[in-house]
Design brief:
three-stranded antiparallel sheet; 2 domains; alpha/beta; single chain; six-stranded parallel sheet; 286 residues
Amino acid sequence: MRVIKSWRTMQREALQWRREAVRIGFVPTMGYLHDGHMSLVRRARKLVGSAGKVVVSIYVNPTQFGPTEDLARYPRDLARDNKLCRAEGVDLVFLPNDQEMYPGKSEGRFSTFVVEENLSQGMEGAARPTHFRGVTTVVAKLFNIVQADVAVFGQKDFQQAAVVRQMVSDLNFPTRIVVAPTTREADGLALSSRNKYLSPAERQQAVALWQTIQLARKTVSRTSVPAVNLKRTLAQFLATFPLANPDYVEIFDPATLQPVRVARRGDHLALAVRFGKTRLIDNGRL
């Protein structure tokens, strides 16, 4: 397994692969990898085959963090990440730094950003106003550098995947976007690098997200429900978890990401909940 830190070297390697008709599968990450990430790697390998190349990027992207968010303390363990990638058969890890990805930004000489103006407005976009501008910008840059035929994202970040897919369509990127299922713990908690922040008590109560999704599914499996009523029921359920502080609970059309007035099977639920200083997100189809 190779590790490349320079974007120019990475791009040269990718362009050579393309000249040789080698398919490239790509998994962009912020590191502190876990089995959820490895499930994306396995999906990428299956998509490009044994003759293809699988690239994992590890980069904690500063432009998708707000000024009061956890950029400085975001968990990092490159030795462990490399070990996991090597064990999973990753061909190349792209490991850029801020100067590689945003040259001259600290001196005010980086001024081009990519902005999606529709799907990014609600939920995470409303709670974190600059978040998706950072996501679309860094993903566009990574796609240009890695030259991937296919990129695999996790369903846990449902809105992010939808925004990236829209960007790819609007800007004519030749990269196929595949969204893989969320990997969960035995009790339903979605795997996340930020789970590391949870205290034992918070970890125990973090199952509230998955149980809220299950409650919503059970409710609409019998009949359609006014969305305002279902959201009230879910808020009351979350209130039974003393350490849970909901940021939002939204029920929406999975194609448009617009809130629905009547919740029914086939709609989507997303929620963000804080446990102490840790903010977790999850979602599921109803």
